[in-house]
Amino acid sequence: MGSVSISIVEGNPHLRSLLGWHLQQVGHWVHQSADISHAREIFFSRQPTLVILDAQLPDGDGLEFCRWLAQQQQSLILMLSARNSEADIVEGLKSGADDYLTKPFGMQEFMARVEALMRRNRTMIPPAMLECGLLKIDLVQRRVRLYEAQIELTPQEFSLLYVLAQAGGVPLSRSDLLSRAWPDAIDNPRTIDTHVLSLRKKIEIDPRQPSLIQTVRNVGYRLNLEFLNTNQPHSPVLGAVTS
Question: pTM of the prediction?
Fold first, then answer.
């Protein structure tokens, strides 16, 4: 197996460490999470090729998180669960898991399942349109519509907005935004602040009191999906160009 980034989302600390150790022994980069909240952060910052997901987690339903992961179309998913009925397995696979392994299991079988998933080398095809309420991002034409108006953005502004929207409302640090939205390595994280200010001038009703791109103290920025999902399409937008 070639080395890939693998995220383990498992509530049992002993099992989590054991799985991580075996995967590291064959050269994989392993990121461990005990809950969905941390697993989401790892997904956005590390973009794992494979997510090994416990179906029962302390802060939420693993099946729901599995559905969310499948919608991102970026990672393969191996679900682990103590539920071993046919109905449970079918539900897990229908939730988006690429494979389902029932507990308890042997380590040789686990490693064989991981290797089989890696061989599939599935091509992840991103969706042509990303919609966040009244914000629509056309990934093919690289166009943005907000409140039914077309917004003229620079290529870098477009990439920054897309990464924020893709995060689904989760705050992203400046370093995360730089690594995901910029094509070249940049050492100055304050570059993000400059481009956020420019983007706010084009999409916010009042850039001095932003409602869409929120500053999260000691973290970075997030896209306010609640605002996008509850406001009316006739709201004015600075910088909008109607078509």
Answer: 0.56
In degrees and rounded to multiples of 5, residue 201 shows phi and psi of -65, -25
Q: What b/e sequence results for 112-141 when a residue is b if at least 16 CB atoms lie within 10 Å of its CB, and e otherwise?
A: ebbeebbeeeeeeeeeeebebbbbbbeeee
As averages over each run of 10 residues, the pLDDT of the chain (243 residues) reads 81 93 88 90 84 88 89 88 91 94 94 89 60 85 88 91 86 84 73 94 92 92 88 49 44
Record the tokens describing residue 39, joined without a space.
Answer: 């697993």
Beta bridge partners of 135: 132, 146
Residue 238 per-residue DSSP state: T
Tell me: cis bond preceding 104? Omega within 30 of 0 counts.
yes
- 18-23-29 Cα angle (round to 5): 120
> What does the domain layout of the chain look like in residue ranges?
5-120, 129-241
Residue 8, sorted as left (phi over 0), alpha (psi -120 to 50) or beta, turns out to be: beta
Helices (H), 73-171: 86-94, 107-120, 155-166
Tell me the CATH class for 129-241.
mainly alpha
Class of domain 5-120: alpha beta
